[in-house]
Amino acid sequence: MALIDTINPLLTTGWAKGDAGWSLKDYEARGGYAQLKRVLASKMTPDDVIGEVKKSVLRGRGGAGFPTGLKWSFMPKAAPEKYVVCNTDEGEPGTFKDRDLLRFDPHSVIEGMIIAGYAVGAKLGYNYIHGEIFEIYQRFEAALDEARAAGYLGEKILGSDFSFDLFAHHGWGAYICGEETGLLESIEGKKGQPRYKPPFPANFGLYGKPTTINNTETFAAIPFILGMGGETYLNLGKPNNGGTKLFSVSGHVNRPGNYEVPMGTPFAKLLELAGGMRGGRRLKAVIPGGSSAPVLPAEVIMDCTMDYDSIAKAGSMLGSGAVIVMDETVCMVKALERLSYFYYEESCGQCTPCREGSGWLYRVVHRIEHGQGRAEDLDLLNRVTDNMMGKTICALADAAALPVRSFTKHFKSEFEYHIEHKKCLVDPEVQRAGSGFFRASSVTGAA
Amino acid sequence: MDNQYDMLSPEALGKIDREVAKYPADQKQSAVMAALVIAQDEKGWLPQETIAAVASYLGMAPIAAYEVASFYNMYDLQPVGKYKLTVCTNLPCALSGGVHAADYVKQKLGIDFNETTPDGKFTLKEGECMGACGDAPVMLVNNKRMCSFMLPEEIDKLLAECK
Amino acid sequence: MLEIEIDGKALQVADGSTIIEAAHQLGTYIPHFCYHKKLSIAANCRMCLVQVEKAPKPMPACATIVTNGMKVFTHSDLAVKAQKAVMEFLLINHPLDCPICDQGGECQLQDLAVGYGESASKYEEEKRVVPDKDLGPLVSTDMTRCINCTRCIRFTAEIAGFMELGQAFRGERAEVMPFIGKTVDTELSGNLIDLCPVGALTSKPFRFSARTWELSRRKSVSPHDGLGSNLILQTKHDKVLRVLPLENEDINECWLTDKERFSYQGLNSPERLTRPMVKQGGEWKEVDWSVALDYTAHALRDVAKTHGGAAIGGLLSPHATLEEMYLAQKLLRGLGSENIDFRLRQNDFSADGKRQGTPWLGMKIADISRLDRVLVVGSFLRKDHPLIAQRLRQSAKRGAQVSVLHSADDDLLITLAARAIAAPSQLPVMLAQIVKAVSQLKGVAADAALAGIAVSAEAQAIAQSLVSGSNAGILLGNFAQQHSQAATLHALGRQLAVVLGGGFGFLGEAANSVGGYVVKATPGATGLNAAAMLNEPRQAYVVLGAEPELDCADGAQALATLSKAAAVVVLSPFKSQAMLDYAAVLLPVSPFSETSGSFVNAEGRVQSFYAAAKPLGEARPAWKVLRVLGNLLEVAGFEHNSSEDVRAEALGGNPDFVAGLDNGIDGVSLNLAAGVSGLERVADVPIHFADALVRRAPALQQARDSAAPTARMNAATLAKLGIGAGERVRVGAGATVILAAELDAGLPDGTVRVAAAHADSVALGAMSSVLSVEKA
Ligand SMILES: Cc1cc2nc3c(=O)[nH]c(=O)nc-3n(C[C@H](O)[C@H](O)[C@H](O)COP(=O)(O)O)c2cc1C
Ligand code: SF4
Ligand code: FES
Questions:
Q1: Quick check: pTM over 0.90?
Q2: How far apart are CA A45 and CA A65, in angstroms?
Q3: CB-closest option in C164, C168, C180 to B67
Q4: CA-based nearest residue to A99, from A139, A150, A133
Q5: What is the pLDDT of residues B110-129, one digit of tens each?
Q6: How much is the ipTM here?
Q7: From the CB of A292, is ligand 2 less than 6 Å away?
């Protein structure tokens, strides 16, 4: 497993025993399912639950940071058939927190989803799990069996009038299924091509029925929020940015891994937790919120705190909290080429600007990287990204465009050097050595 | 219509039935992704008749099942080796040895991405982000088994283990 | 109603409208590709982006629902910039092959590229190449031109009812294709050609034969089924090279069946009869019209003189025009014959004299879409009336309940509410059960004749569905009309509708199934009907437009009888070996494309058309030929100068709808007897064999729907006979034919389904009969 450390363990409290602590009895020993019991026994109304979540200012951890309580309140009350869906299609490069959540503490997500089902009036839920982590899917199914056997799932849960069942659905290799409507299509047994919105899932979701869809980490936070109260949770973080957040730190640090820190923790502190820069090399750039977020140069990120508002102010996005750290050995053209290839590869293909534009971007960046760039290429990239952004069904086209725009903006001279000299500013050997095999300095938990 | 799905074993059909049971009764198609995985596990890859058989079992148009089989990366529409190794080379992994790991495997097996060793044992694929970037380099064996921290010694061990 | 503004123009639109619909109301064009008013909204091409006040991004007009007070700008800088951006993306991978593309001149992409494209693209990478697909004999592909708008895919899934196309792979590699090794087999496949906004899907039969600007266009009407689809015939040098739908929401909407679209190939068939021919001493000779007409007049006059007018029989094709039928019956009556009929495939004529008017659809075609409960009785609906099936398919999706009573459970690609599948002999009693069950549910006294009948579960289920709605319709198909107890089915269907307070009518088999009644192309009180004319051989026959061996209820008998007749006069656009054998004179007459005329469709609508091309060779419009024959035979009242004159006389003016439509029927004694021993034949008339024209359309003849007849039976029947699917079997009543046995789980026990109207099965004789089947 990846390295972990926290400043304020909440979501990660259950991770301490690594792979040995995921089961129901461990979870119950940590106080698990107490909130579900309390909600059902105390006859908290669904609106009470939603109110508490609203107070916490929990913002969705899947990327967009939409307030969760508000989203739940959009669910039509009267609809007879409703769904709760969890998004564990974690495929955004740099993000690997949801996998560990399900690996070490699946019941927190299950409990969060049951409570969500109660709050929005759903009787059935699905957790959509990234195809590449099939072992985690199997573990989640085992956890579901435990929960079902213990009466946390099924008819009349814990003797209440509330019935809810939950199943796991696995993906099979498509980043776009992380987009919520692509994900719903995928559960319906189709290609994961996103739907035009509106209507939003709260009105027209799974099988056309009202559906609440949240990220894994969002659901995992629910029992904790109910446990400590919305306000206490909010105050862990900073105003408008409630609670703690998991950050997946990858790249050129000594200890890549997931770190749970309060919202508003300085980036420098996070970097320190992650063991600092690998080999003591100089920080060059950071993508603070998954590969779709604009890259920030070292000097900008070092002044940021890790929360939605601060990162947005700096011109990027907190996104899923995936922090990709790059040091001075990185060629920014090459790094962008790989990301552009990813979006080209993952475009679902329905919208003209994305289908055609993502390949165009990749090909231009590719040719710059391979010494065939042209003087007008940076303008061309600018124009193509401009033509893609805001013109498609989902945000993948923007996600493909933003890295191109931010890399070429902040590291323009490197691109110009490439085009002019037909080679890298950073010596290829240095690049290769800088990103070579590496053994983390210390590993906690079992591999 | 004849029973085209005779070609799937009773065990496979049983597994598919368990998947179907997860969804509302009128939404059998929801099980298609799992059913194709089950079929792929049984056949090693997904020949078109197998896709048609799955479609017919779930009462959907064959092309609708083919759309699914061709949309998601890990369905194999062509035969692959006994062991399909997928190495993530996306940026976060690439910063921590992902490309080196891929190069190492290529050199050990004497094949490039999307190639199969002449003995039909290994197929090598380039993967996109597997959601395990903290464990770089990561490799997937036959779609389902994830191997973390794949330094050269680990790769050697893995290859030796694949009989 | 909402108040909105588009480009500064205020308008009111209905709640739930999209911007593109609202713009349409104003006549403002918004460029688009994926949007199509009859298909679900995909919003994937992004061509229709417009500016909406207060929206930060351009919005797709096809998918954006208007809100009150919305201000839309379709030509603002933001909108135009977005549209140009999308156009550039669409063109980067599109081949520059307009000069050799069949879509050239009628390509939405080409048109819009001129308006919204930049002159030169900045894209300098290699263009994508996409492998072509084999979609069958009708639709040709150039998939590199595809812009992935997915209209074709949505068409197959939503309109045709089965997803035969999909978009495989993803991103830039996305490809529209059928399942590997499959073709597109829907009977509506040609619509894909119209729907494709670029040249990716084009007409295979039309391929490279002309450029759109070289074609002349003429409106016309489909000469096939009773729907009367509106057509545009496109010709070059007096040859019909292409047929397109003329949109008519009340009839065919914007669709055509493949039969209607591609049967034009038959117009150019090598079997066209282009010169008059007479048989002299057993030898056929091409002669001048005057010779042929004299010969004809002579022959008919001789018979009439020697044997009396009743020795002549007239067999008229139900696909003949109103004018042709009118003059033909007038001529025959002038010769003293009342033996006239156009109902060639009918078996039971016992309703004659008991009908209160002309049998018809009983409602407007468009009203079918408003029914919320439908019972279709005795119909191979999807093949006999594909566009009505299409209407019901859409209704069912909107919640209408469609039920079926039939002798075959063919997949209509409609979700059925209930069904009863029974052997032909059981259909009347089944329908009687439904009438009884509905009466009981409605608390109405049932017909006394139904007292002893027990209601089966299937009938009960259908009845329950029927009474649960508020606007029911009972539709009798071709099979019911051809049934040997057709009068009973008519009377029961009518009763059912009366109890339900719903509609009742007949799905017209042919282009003029209603028109034939209107012009009295039916036997007079003393005359013989189509079956009787063949049962009781006449000296002479006049055959207009039909091929009796394929178009009559008992083709074998027709052939035998005609072969023995002294004089058979055939007016036909085509010749066939059979005709050469039995006829004495062949008069080449124009098919529908080369004559003016009218068809009365199932809803009673009179649809007239002009010739789109000059007659081929020496062929002449049949109405003119009949008029001259009238003069030669000195029959009074043959002074018409135009087909309009004929129509005016036939209809007493120029009405939009014919008068006297009424499905009422009196005095039919219900025949519910059901004692049949042996295998009952279930005979369908395959879609591409139903008339002389379509039988000669080569591309259609290669389609899957044109497969040779087999002997289809269900598993129990096969087992009982000890026959395996695929084995050769000898099927027979009198004469026998050898066919392949085929398993068809949708057939009732004790039935064998063998298609009619096909050379391979003519020898079997009557469409409704009892057959024996044994291993060959
Ligand atoms: C291209 C794309 C990929 C996405 N991938 C993910 C993902 O892997 N996991 C996730 O939770 N949300 C992802 N999202 C965001 C989801 O659409 C959605 O906003 C989220 O699941 C809502 O949950 P939340 O409110 O709890 O954040 C993605 C969005 C886009 C446009
Ligand atoms: S933007 Fe791209 S990924 Fe998103 S729906 Fe459109 S084509 Fe698919
Ligand atoms: S017509 Fe609106 S997106 Fe295609």
A1: yes
A2: 26
A3: C168
A4: A133
A5: 999 999 999 999 999 999 99
A6: 0.95
A7: no
